[in-house]
Structure to design on (99 residues):
């Protein structure tokens, strides 16, 4: 909660327009999966879970074919792949800064 409050306090300084949520379905990139592999529990870079990823569902910016659903990715030991949840579900989200 403290991190969220700090982030919200900083938004006026850095602007909302520079942040987005990572994609999970794309012809060229799976940004959310790359984040998990590099700074999460995937530990590809050998840094440990410095991104603080949980074994849980994470929203992506990728949309489902239905207007009421969006793509979500589960990182954990029992389920993998992309799921489609109603947009009103409460799950984790990762913001990334566009550059």
């Amino acid at each position: 909660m403290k991190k969220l409050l700090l982030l919200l306090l900083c938004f006026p300084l850095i602007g909302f327009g520079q942040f987005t949520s990572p994609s999970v379905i794309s012809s060229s990139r799976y940004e959310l999966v790359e984040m998990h592999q590099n700074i999460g529990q995937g530990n590809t870079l050998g840094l440990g879970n410095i991104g603080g990823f949980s074994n849980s569902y994470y929203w992506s910016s990728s949309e489902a074919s239905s207007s009421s659903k969006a793509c979500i990715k589960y990182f954990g030991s029992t389920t993998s792949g992309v799921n489609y949840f109603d947009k009103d579900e409460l799950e984790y989200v990762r913001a990334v800064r566009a550059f």
Summary: The radius of gyration is 14 Å.
